[in-house]
DNA sequence: TCTGGGGTCCTAGGACCC
DNA sequence: TCTGGGGTCCTAGGACCC
């Protein structure tokens, strides 16, 4: 079963503020150059879509109401939703903040069958949070996801195994979870437009053109998918932050000030959840949107803001910039959980760790960089205040 | 008042080692 | 009288997802 909230962020905002109900609204980020994150269905009627910039969205719908997103609200709701799913099965995969997979194979009979569970979940969520969701039920995740995608909004659809073939026959491959614009274009070049055609395509042809995923593509066309519901929370593989700058900047010291800011955000999140990483990457985007990433490997696992910052700034130092920069990103990857902190043999190490812990605690409570190193303040002074980025992150690493 | 932010997975090429 | 085969690690880039 796939449970997908309808226009999740927008629905939550409409619930929180009755004035917004029934109106075309869109949730955005907080920075100046933001885009639409979610549009209410009232706004979608006018053509407002996720990813549009504000200018485009306002052009499509002049009386569109813009609401700045509040991630904590959505994360909180997501956690509450997860508890509801868990009443029906322990096998719940919280795939994203607004979407979950439930394996009800062995539990549905306890609740009167799959459809009854879907109806119950929809009702509980509607009663409790006032928001709609769409439920897809199928023999596997791929088709359950499809069932919910094609039944939005406020839908419930059970695709039984005997109906899979018929539904896929004329469905465009792009509609399948995992087939994006590039693959569907390449398939179209082979004369494959529908899932039916994909399922009948030559396996060797697909293998030749797409390598290892060729086989999977054919199976997907046939509606076959063996991906299980992964209810165990997996360890994250990277922790990163990026931000589009209020204005494009070319000054390296200014860029470095943002790198520091982002390094602190990354380091603090890593420390909070006890992760260290061995690779640091810096992503930059030019005004024309060309985007590139360079990374470096550390000699040891680390999560210190200093080390992350220094690595990222070193990378910057090796780059010849051809233009101003519009986006900067810092990411820590190749990460692992820290061992239960074994006290260091060295007094100075111990004191340093303790100091960092205290600084983090203060900053968690009072905000980024309320307590920081004097050397950092000197840098920041040059460039004025840097506002924190709004962050529609996955739900994994929230407190 | 042009185009966000956070992720995962895969491929390919080069350096280096035995 | 032309240069193997097997492997790891590293970096960069791209496709895809929400």
Briefly summarize what is shown:
The protein has 399 residues and is an alpha+beta fold. It contains 15 helices and 12 strands. The two termini are 27 Å apart.
Description:
By secondary structure, the protein is of the alpha+beta class. It folds into three domains: 1-157, Alpha-Beta Plaits (2-Layer Sandwich); 163-221, 5' to 3' exonuclease, C-terminal subdomain (DNA polymerase, domain 1, Orthogonal Bundle); 238-398, DNA polymerase, Y-family, little finger domain (Dna Ligase, domain 1), CATH 3.30.1490. Helices cover 42% and strands 20% of the residues. It is built from 15 helices and twelve strands. The protein has a five-stranded mixed β-sheet. A four-stranded antiparallel β-sheet has the order 9-12-10-11, with helices on one face. The chain has a three-stranded mixed β-sheet with strand order 3-2-4. Helix 10 (203-210) packs across helix 11 (212-221). The radius of gyration is 24 Å and the shape is globular. The relative contact order is 0.10. Mean pLDDT is 91; it is low at 380-395. The protein binds a DNA duplex (18 and 18 nucleotides) through residues 28-29, 31-37, 50-56, 58, 95-99, 177-183, 211-213, 236-244, 279, 281, 289, 292-297, 327, 329, 331, 389-394, 396.
